[in-house]
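Please fill in the sequence for the structure shown.

STRUCTURE ENCODING:
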């Protein structure tokens, strides 16, 4: 005979869900304690919050294939006690994508309020531009201990160790950066965003590495300001 407690628990075995975003949106989510719903891709539909079971999802920001630098891990079991979580395929209108991996997608209609109550962890990609300022990220982590800076980045369908693909800061690298700045008379300009500066130096350094470590990026910015 099925017990009532078993029926109640059956609908709550959702597991961990993920939401991918950028740093500015994360700050707004934490400030308002709300994960805002959106219908920007389907104007005729009710606003929803997009979630996924795929922890790789859309994360990138360090030469990865994704566009977001923040992954929010959410307790799906706890969330389902308050919100209806529905499977969704964003490509259902496109026959060519009928075999897509979007079977892992979930949606919640409307805003998710008190989102901090459901957050398990927040992972920031080590390529996020906001990490260039060590004080601001430290203050954020001190306030929200569930926030962590990842030591992994996405490459294709897997995560790899950031230090394996990022150029470390050595005395030789410092000297080379200093020489570039002096020789080319490079100065800081608000019209030349940080990420463009970093990309410029990354090409100039021309190493076997895909990108630069946070220490190298911070050194470049500090020398220019």
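FILLED IN BY: designer on duty
SEQUENCE:
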């Amino acid at each position: 005979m099925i017990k009532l407690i078993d029926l109640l628990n059956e609908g709550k075995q959702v597991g961990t869900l993920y939401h991918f975003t950028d740093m500015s949106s994360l700050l707004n989510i934490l400030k308002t304690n709300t994960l805002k719903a959106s219908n920007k891709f389907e104007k005729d539909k009710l606003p929803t919050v997009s979630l996924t079971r795929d922890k790789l999802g859309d994360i990138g920001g360090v030469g990865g294939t994704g566009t977001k630098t923040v992954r929010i891990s959410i307790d799906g079991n706890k969330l389902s006690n308050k919100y209806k979580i529905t499977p969704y395929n964003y490509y259902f209108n496109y026959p060519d994508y009928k075999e897509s991996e979007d079977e892992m997608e979930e949606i919640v209609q409307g805003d998710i309020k008190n989102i901090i109550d459901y957050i398990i962890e927040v992972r920031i990609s080590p390529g996020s531009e906001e990490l260039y300022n060590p004080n601001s990220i430290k203050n954020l982590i001190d306030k929200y201990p569930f926030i962590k800076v990842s030591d992994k980045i996405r490459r294709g369908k897997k995560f790899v160790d950031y230090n394996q693909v990022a150029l470390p800061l050595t005395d030789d690298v410092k000297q080379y950066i200093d020489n570039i700045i002096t020789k080319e008379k490079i100065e800081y300009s608000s019209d030349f965003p940080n990420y463009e500066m970093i990309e410029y130096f990354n090409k100039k350094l021309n190493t076997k590495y895909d990108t630069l470590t946070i220490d190298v990026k911070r050194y470049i910015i500090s020398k220019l300001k």
